[in-house]
Hints:
A: alpha/beta, 9 helices, B: mainly alpha, two-stranded antiparallel ribbon, globular
Amino acid sequence: MSAPALSARGLARHYGGVAALRGVDLDLVPGEIRGLIGPNGAGKSTLVDVLSGRAPGSGGSVRLFGQDITGLGPAARRHAGLARSFQRTSIFPALPVGAQLDLAARRVGATDAPRLLDELDLARLAAVPAEQTAYGDQRRLDLALALVGPPRVLLLDEPAAGLTAEESLALADRLRELARARGVTVLLVEHDMEVVFRICERITVLELGAILAEGTPQEIRRHPEVVRAYLGSAAA
Amino acid sequence: MSGAGRIAAGALATAAAGPAIAALVPPGVLLSLLAQACIYAILALSVGVLARQNGMVSFGHAAMFGAGAYLAGIGLGAPGLLPAEAALPLAVLAVAAVCFGLGLIVVRVHGIAFAMLTLALGQACFEAANKARGVTGGADGLTVALPREIFGLPAATFQWAEGMFLIAWLAMVALAALAALLARSRFGLLTEAIRENEERARFLGYGTVLPRAAVFALSGGIAAAGGVLYVLYNGFVSPETVHWSVSGSALIMALLGGTRTVWGPLAGAAVYFLLREQLVEVTERWLGLLGILLVLVMVFLPDGLSGLPRRLRRQRGAEA
């Protein structure tokens, strides 16, 4: 049996006396798009931060295709094949869009930057400083910076935040196509349930820093604890 | 023409303007002032490089300027140890090397904390220059006798206003071209990216300390080159050269001209020196008037005087 693409064991994170993550176990199957949902304060972003090396864990381990990356910093994790995007758009505002993609591609020896610009409808903006582009373009640039390479595992923290419903669904479809075409395993944190149910093969539900449930979208929709804690009428 | 070609052509044209300026300006006080302005423009350029590439404001660059001057002065004072042709570049390289080592630590600090750190380091150097009498001459300063020839030029060339103006002008243009080429290079793009969003750069797989330390070293080296010219021209260096007020003046020049462009600090230095000369004639409180000008520039032209063409272009674009 092949190693999980990303595997977390007993992942914990404490802020003073507050436990934001309480022994989270998580396994992503290579090539899957996994949704990570939960109410505000459930620990979703903290989990992504600890998985990506942005924040140190208080305990537990992280493995990427069997390689222990627990002690690695963000740059080393990127070289190992783990990339991420951020809840708030994280780009280089004054730099031209194309130059940003080149910079990202060069570091990992990738040649797919021009294709990615085309696929994410950013080619027309290649020479434009990112700060002069529309918000939706910036969100796609943020995604492109994470996808270039491509990485083996991609952690996406609310990539559709701030987009209209129509833009969110379009971004979700594009993300699914790109991830499948490149064989990228994705962990998607998202509040927009329509996006999650549309593209995720499995969903993990987090509550109060611990896993509440895990299953297919159909199973999650019907899970009574998930409906009570988070989904409510959205499950209908 | 490529970007590098444009920079080279611009640098050559600007370099060629130096002799024309020297021919047009009557020899004497004004030419001496221009020579000094070029030397301090190099210091302002070093402050601008740090601000542009690293997004960092330094209140301690006089320490690098002064260190370059002292090291060159000490080297020139020991001709049996090193020929002047080796002592001068070594002074610059030594300051750059120390700045690189120091940079590995200090560039981890951001914003106002970095500014205060550079102020503290600068003042520590000022104290060291004052106290180490055996090496620096203490508060009396270090008088430097130049050898008869340096790089095949008679020593008098370096201490004669027209000669030093031309040398400093060429050095300033060459260093500005170097800074412009750096800004356009891949390394320059990386440092700008780190300046814009250091965390994102790390998550793209880049280490962010080494590039920032390299820029700090380059900036220190440029400041030291200014210091070397200073001691060649004046034949003297004292702790006053290292004082924080010199760092403050360089920062004012860089901010007046603007740090978004490489040439902004050079323009700022020219405005600073020419205005100072005029204002000194009017009032003893010339620094206050200069302060008011700085406030006005910061309020109405946050990108400095070099941001004016860009602003005018935008306004024209908006009206069209």
